[in-house]
What we know:
The protein contains twelve helices and no strands. The protein has about 280 residues and is mainly α. It starts with a helix and ends with a helix.
Amino acid sequence: MIEYIIIAILQGLFEWLPISSSGQVMIVSVNFFGIPPEQAFSLSIWVHLGTTIAVLLKLRKDYFQIIKSILPGKFEVDESDIKRRNWLIFATLGTAVTAIPLYFLFKFVIVEGFNAVQGDVLTLVISGLLIITGIVLLVFRKNFGKKTINTVSDRELIKDSSISGLIQGIAILPGISRSGFTVSTILFEKYNQDQSLKLSFLMSVPVALASIGIDIIVGEGSVFGTIDLLTILIITIISFIVGYLSMELLLKIAQKINFSYFCILYGVTSFIIILPIMFFG
């Protein structure tokens, strides 16, 4: 039980930072707690349930307005609510295009091939993806402008949200930071920093819930059957509490500290430690 509590705490802390929480969960699960890679992959998806609930609670007013905008004739909504709704729709559709095939590729092709090497190769793959995340953040983080969803045309909004969704879908791979990639993409599209952060978090809920739903439907390798419901409930509660309490603080820290260097250093360190063990151990 203690290993799952630690994993839930890590998820609650890392989800809001431009580093991969799923990557950290998989590395810790496989290398420190001996959890099989396919189970660790499902676990990295399920621990997002608690932090997703935290986002829903924290941004509940935004989501209520977006839901109301579906029936504008019955509720009082403004143009910004409608544009946020449209952004979420096209971003979610874009996410599905890349996330669904990558999910099945990783879950049934890549992960299963790594069981024989006890997760070492898997860790190197994840570390390589962490390095890519750091490089992307270094390249794109400073390239933000003054655009908001209220100032762009409907056509431009559809284009920007669809591209952001396509990029978000890549983050189904452990090691790729969802928040890092989506915020970087929206900044690169010249939206201001506050808008980029908020849109990124609004986008996180549909994809997190969809990932959990797919994992339930697919069944094989899911945490169901390997982890009891009580443990799943405890994981969800802990990641929710830690995530909610740390959200404000960690968002402020993330804006001040360049985590791109952390991602690169973390990934390089994994290669330095693991490669000698694999070849000479």
